[in-house]
Each structure stands twice: as C-alpha cells, then as structure tokens.
Write a structure and sequence with these properties.
single chain; alpha/beta; ten-stranded mixed sheet; four-stranded antiparallel sheet; globular
C-alpha cells in the first residue's frame, strides 16, 4: 500500500466520476475547501471555478490532465487494481472528514463498491453525497438531531445486532440485521433526537440529502 501523500486537518471534498448534485457539491466545497479529484471525477470540474489539489487513481478515465497539472494540481497514479479509485484516495489522503461527491448513481456496481468502502474504512469519517440521498457508516452508535417525519433507512452490509433505539417509528433494539434477512429501510423519525446503537460495525444509514447540515453538525464540521 502506498504511503499517505498528504494530511489535512480540516474536512476535504472529493469528486468522483458518478452522478452527483451540483448544488450539494458547491456547498460541500464551502465546508471541505480542499478538493481531491478521483480519476474521472476530474471531468466534472471547470478550470475556471475549481482547483483539485490532487488527482488520484489509475487515471484511465481522467481527461485533459495536463491542463490541471499546469494549474498546480498534483498527480498520484496508482495502477494496482485490487482497490477502487475511491479506496485509493482514502488511503492516500488523510483527513478528519471526507465529503464524497460523485460516488453514487450511474453504475450500480460503483455505488455498491462505494458503500463497501465505508465498511472497509470504518476508521474514516466519510459522507457519500448523492442527488437525493446521503450515506454514512454507523460504527456501533450515533446520535442525531433530525426533523420528525424524516425517512431513516438502515442497510446492513453484514450481521449487526441492534442494541438501543430512541426516536424511531420502528424500534431496532434486539433486532438481528443481515443483508440476507432483516434490513431496516423506510423507518421514520418520531422525535427531534434519534439515538441508535449496535453490536459491531457494518450498518449503513441512508438519509435524504437535505439532512447534510445536521450530519455535518454531528461530525463537528458545523457549529
């Protein structure tokens, strides 16, 4: 595994080659001002408005790379095919929070691979940002402030036991979740404060994209 190329002490924004919400992307840049382009994600950027500090991946999809190099972007080409370009970015760049745009939608296999990366890198704080939804990994427990009525979907990537539950229409306490049996999609928030905990890691939380500011607050990225 290649060594970390740069460490950041503040949140960063990442852009991948998948579908994304341009307004959310621009908003994420106000939080994660340092931008990393992951291979074909570079093609979403406008040289007049964006500047990726790094361009990372096997670089088989990125176009017009020299334009960005001339502007000062650094390259990190990693040719190994045992990890996705998204995973390459996660192990090459260290940051307290990753706002990951362009890793959901377009191709289902890429979307699933991005979700898998959240589980593999549970040591990282990552928010996958899509057009309609956001996804985070819940590592054992989380406490959130959300509007009553908010869609609150849980999807396990492995066997996970629900331990405690507060503020949800359907209690998850004592529920054994598994991708081949019980999942937890389409739950609903019933209290302004939601708290859930699990035995073990591997649970993904899917929320409407409008919940992003509240998730950022949970990660300490907003006051």
């Amino acid at each position: 595994m290649t060594a970390v190329v740069q460490k950041f002490n503040k949140p960063i924004s990442i852009i991948g080659a998948g579908d994304f919400n341009p307004e959310i992307f621009e908003y994420s840049l106000t939080i994660g001002k340092d931008l990393i382009a992951v291979d074909g994600g570079l093609n979403h950027l406008n040289p007049a408005h964006h500047f990726p500090r790094w361009i990372i991946g096997d670089l088989d999809s990125a176009k017009n790379i020299q334009i960005w190099v001339d502007k000062g972007s650094k390259l990190s080409k990693v040719s190994e095919q045992e990890s996705t370009d998204f995973e390459k970015c996660l192990y090459l760049v260290d940051a307290p929070l990753y706002l990951a745009n362009g890793f959901l939608g377009l191709r289902l296999d890429h979307t699933l691979a991005s979700c898998s990366a959240l589980i593999k890198r549970k040591d990282k704080n990552i928010i996958l940002l899509g057009k309609k939804d956001l996804i985070i990994h819940v590592d054992e427990m989380i406490s959130l402030e959300l509007e009553v009525g908010t869609r609150f979907s849980l999807f396990p990537f492995k066997e996970v036991l629900g331990l405690t539950s507060y503020g949800l229409k359907y209690n998850i306490s004592g529920v054994y979740f598994s991708p081949d049996s019980i999942i937890g999609t389409s739950n609903e928030v019933t209290s302004p404060k939601v708290e859930i905990s699990f035995r073990g890691s591997g649970m993904l939380l899917i929320l409407p994209i409008c919940c992003l500011p509240r998730i950022l607050k949970t990660y300490g990225a907003l006051p």
